Amino acid sequence: MTEGGSTEGGATTGRAARELLARAEGLLGAARGVLADHGRAVDAVRAALDPLLDALVRDELSAIPASRLKDVTEGRLRIGAVEQAGFTTVGQVHGANRYELRQIPGVGAQTADQALAAAGQIAHAVRDTVTVRIAVESPDDATTALVTALYRLVEAGPDVRRAVDGARGVTERLDPLLAAAAPARGRLRMLFTRRPVRAQALAAVAAARAVMADAAERELPLLFGQVSVDLLRDPDSAVAAWVDFEVRSAEYYSLLAEMSGTGPDRDAAEGFLPSGIADRVRGLRLDDARLRVSLRGYQSFGARFALAQKRVILGDEMGLGKTVQAIAALAHLAARGETHFLVVCPASVLINWTREVRARSTLRALPVHGPERQGAFAEWREAGGVALTTFDALHTLPLAGDCGIRPGMLVVDEAHYVKNPATRRSRAVSGWSQRTERVLFLTGTPMENRVEEFRSLVRQLQPELAPSISTGHGAAGSQAFRRAVAPAYLRRNQQDVLTELPALVQVDEWEEFSAADLLAYREAVGTGQFMRMRRAAYACPATSAKLNRLRELVAEAAGNGLKVVVFSYFREVLETVRQALGEGVFGPLSGRLPAARRQELIDGFTAADGHAVLLSQIQAGGIGLNMQAASVVILCEPQIKPTMEHQAVARAHRMGQIRTVQVHRLLAADSVDQRLLDILARKERLFDAYARRSDVAETTPDAVDVSDGSLARRIVEEEQQRLAAGAKAEADAGSPAPGAGV
């Protein structure tokens, strides 16, 4: 006998059982609450979405001649009398009823029914193809209702899916268990219960205890409570919902595509893979327990492709989120017990990878770079996580076999860096890939244009496939190429998978100062020259970290045939960029140029076939000029005035733009850039929430910006103090200056 009850078969009855079952009922109630709250949020979206879809379907049907109804019935329907009565479009027939059609001379019950059924089939097919486009420029009541309804689900974030899945699982398991365990709530009741029922009750109590333990381990009670609160949270106002949509439009459109059942063509979203491979990838369920981001359908498929095929190249066009797909694959493996992962990338994106891993997942990110890389590597070897290192640092680290670690996955970003197997960096990567079961190469350049390069990469991943790849496959076109190399390659293009109104994708490209950059920056800080501090990252072009990243972004855009606009506040910086990029660059545009000349440059840039680059001072390019031919925008430095960046980006991201616009803001860590963003963050949020929709703000944008002079003084003083403190710490420790090492 135990306190409060007896034990039989390892399960407790009496008070302990009552307490356990009461907690189980509480968890079941919370799970049902999550499902109900989610259901109401989904219903609210559907209630706002359906009228918009109905209107789009009506518009489409009104343009389809009624004669097309015969096609649906394979010519059996006689539509002449219906057309003569004024029903000339499918929309008019679909909007009619059986009684109306039967009043038409010569139209019997069978003809009326056939016509309505055929119109219904066409309407259903049209509904599968229409896409709701949310017009920020001209919001109305209907779209505002939709954005507000979507806000709840977007604001609740990626935890919603995990909470709903967990709630369904808890409900399915606990519902029958609580019913079966009812006799175990009291000892007296158990005494008068038949032995089979008593045994069933005790087994149900034990099973309920296991469900509760599993839920506690997965922190489901806390998750259910938080998600329910999030799903009931309305935006502060319709304006706040619209502002959130502008900031996170991709998430809204992803959810909208899921809710409406529309989206990219499945073959395109799956990279035109053969059915056998696609079926295997679809059959893999992605474990997103350690993710902090909602994946779009094609992104989930990309992560599962990497997991199912194990050694592959993910070659999605830039802007489709290759990094987050790789992180999703790592998070899946971590949720299944893997502990160590290795990411190799150019030094220019190391900081971005570190930030993305930490922001998009619960995985531990550990940079293995610089003078302390051996110590960081040893820490990773002992504690696990995602080690992030550079091509140039990798060869200085022990190999997988030598250090006793086999990563759950090796990710190689910008994989074209290792296309030449004879180089040191390629040998270093190969040393790890040969000892790692799962390897994921990432590249944004289309491989069908670089068949020999592709064959070289495949040899490192699936050597048995390389001999079968010929230049003829590339010449046959992108889809033919992708099918031929499907076991090792997945690529999707923006136009294939981003079917909504083009999104604005903003990426902060964080760089570390090179030694020369840092010296120029320290000199500028020492003399208190704020503007010199802002452009110090370009003072030494040969070693400039920002300039190097800019070249990489432009090269990737060139590989994809995309046009690029580069903005800077400084003519001197634009001249440096022009020299770095070489011939064929348009501009720079500046305030000194006559308006007609500026328009000539933009017209030439727009008319250029394929890739082109336009340079512009942000003050000149941000006002009165349209640059929607560009789908990549590079900001050389953050601006003091948020309005200046918004207006410049709006030159490309506006009506007439047919592609997702990618905005890359080049930033130097631990510098004036960091201080500027920290100070402006709150100011910009206020600007987004109130000023952007204010007529006054449109005419006097300076009203919402901080004072240039006061901001400059504050940043200069803070940087002087920070560098002085850092110099003292280095002197005391005898450590090398920042930026030294590989």
TrEMBL record:
It comes from the Bacteria. SUPFAM superfamilies: P-loop containing nucleoside triphosphate hydrolases (SSF52540). The keyword Hydrolase applies. Residues 303-464 form the Helicase ATP-binding domain. Keywords: ATP-binding, Helicase, Hydrolase, Nucleotide-binding. Residues 722-742 are annotated as: Disordered. This is DEAD/DEAH box helicase. The lineage of its organism: Bacteria, Bacillati, Actinomycetota, Actinomycetes, Kitasatosporales. Residues 549-702 form the Helicase C-terminal domain. PROSITE patterns: HELICASE_ATP_BIND_1, HELICASE_CTER. The keyword ATP-binding applies. Transmembrane segments: none annotated. GO terms for molecular function: helicase activity. Residues 724-742 have a biased composition (Low complexity). InterPro entries: Helicase_ATP-bd, Helicase_C-like, P-loop_NTPase, SNF2-like_sf, SNF2/RAD54-like_C, SNF2_N.
